[in-house]
Amino acid sequence: MQNFHRDGICPIRDVLSRLGDKWSLLVLVSLQTNGVMRFGDLQRSIGDVSQRMLTVTLRTLEADGIVERKAYAEVPPRVEYRLTDRGRSLMPCLNGLVEWAQRHADGILENRK
Amino acid sequence: MQNFHRDGICPIRDVLSRLGDKWSLLVLVSLQTNGVMRFGDLQRSIGDVSQRMLTVTLRTLEADGIVERKAYAEVPPRVEYRLTDRGRSLMPCLNGLVEWAQRHADGILENRK
DNA sequence: CGGAATCCATATGGATACTG
DNA sequence: CAGTATCCATATGGATTCCG
């Protein structure tokens, strides 16, 4: 088998664990659907994410080059977020997983009982 | 956009957050590659997972019907793990993500600095 | 061999208050 | 508007010990 371990870090696990956190997927799907969004747009779109967690999530996605942040020097401030090329290249994989989850959600929840 | 929130639970987030934990992906890839495996096989294959975490991970995957556990009443005990049909149906999606992560790992790590 | 049980450290996430 | 800064609760994961 492929050796994902033992050589220090595991990029796969690293990437997956970031996307599997509580908010990243929601942010990415929302950006994919709506294109360019402001901070407040994202917060309303997701609905129940706190300001802090949305900021933390966006900073992480930005650090990984998956989301781009563009701030305008205006008052009141305006900040726009959008997917980068790398982010867009990720979405087909994510969409596949989302579809799988939707197809199997009922069965899985049933299974747990 | 699709409404992943507000209606109580979000099956997508639920499923994704489980797979994004520290060990599930490694277990699934290992089972996909090696077929039927015993507990000790899995532990050696992954390399640095503790007994406890491997147990916890396998129990969760089993509860979701992604992995099947078969115990034989022998001494010393023998327990086999394998992917279920549902688990196998998940692997193409996961493999897509793994490939994406491998292709972009260098760029992402570079980006973070 | 394949766990279960316990204890503990750290990581993750939420609530609240404040700010350029 | 789009954050930062604190503080705190819980979740996750590791080390160790014990067991059929």
TrEMBL record, chains A, B:
One Pfam family matching this protein: HxlR
Gene3D superfamilies: Winged helix-like DNA-binding domain superfamily/Winged helix DNA-binding domain (1.10.10.10)
Keywords linked to the UniProt accession: DNA-binding, Transcription, Transcription regulation
InterPro entries: HTH_HxlR (IPR002577), WH-like_DNA-bd_sf (IPR036388), WH_DNA-bd_sf (IPR036390)
Highest taxon of source: Bacteria
Domain HTH hxlR-type span(s) in chain numbering: 10-109
Secretion signal, residue range per the UniProt entry: none
PROSITE patterns (UniProt xref): HTH_HXLR (PS51118)
Protein name listed in UniProt: Helix-turn-helix transcriptional regulator
